[in-house]
Amino acid sequence: MALTLTFAVERWPIAGSFAISRGAKTQAVVVVAELGDGQIRGRGECVPYARYGESVDSVTAAIESMRQPLAAGLTREGLQSAMPAGAARNALDCAFWDLEAKRSGRRVHELAGLPAPQPLTTAFTISLGAPAEMAKAAAKAVQRSLLKVKLGGNKDLGGDGARIAAVRAAAPRTTLIVDANEGWNDGNLAAHLAACAEAGVVLVEQPLPEGRDRALAGLSRPIPVCADESVRDRRSLAALAGKYDAVNIKLDKAGGLTEALALVQEAERAGFAIMAGCMVATSLAMAPAMLLAQTARFVDLDGPLLLAKDRPDGLRYVDSLVYPATPALWG
To answer: Of 125, 190, 204, 282, whose CB neighbour count within 10 A is largest?
Structure first.
């Protein structure tokens, strides 16, 4: 059936700022795509991923390029080969799922053959900063059971060893995971892993830059290491063997829920633990990610918690739990 396409760029202020090793931002810029059949419309949200060379302009242009194929009857299955993995395909893929659910009167998990999603414990992110600043942020979030600590920062603000020690002192009983966002190197890898082990960190994400991570191969490391920037879709898995213990799957990297669900299955068969992650975005982006997160060892779907406000009918967050979406939001 021919489908009509509309899309819009939205800007959502962040509560304060969000800082990682590559920089800081004060707003989340998202692209929302809608597919309609004349009666029903489905929505999907994506975040252009600058790390992979995406911009708002390139993502909206890629979505626009699908207008004629959609009008000619392009399906969700056909979309997988019509577009590469990335944010643009994610928005359209999730819009397809939402549209299919509304057309059928069934939830997306039913259409995908999955169990009904359950509430999950999500991490809450502590942005990169000086040790004292990060300790203050951790103290404010001390009631949360899982914190994700951003490292890989400027030594002038204090080293990463001091940062993780300060966070641990402020949150002595909280489970900690660390995300270096490619900010370490071969020379400081061992020392930083040792500092994280001393602080009781249970997982370290992407310590070394993609393509320059050979030092992880065969490394006797005290903490499991998770690939983030080094994994996108199923094609990227082969290069991770022997270097990573887990993979962080994000819809914007995989190009939508369809590929992300397939990636979960293949990654598990290859022996990787699963982490379900997100970009800073609204609940519309988190809703489909809740489905792939159901079997994940670690869940990091705190995007809406980092915003000054979320969209109407957003996901419900209670302490460290995030609840599945209602049909009013998605799926």
So the answer is: 204
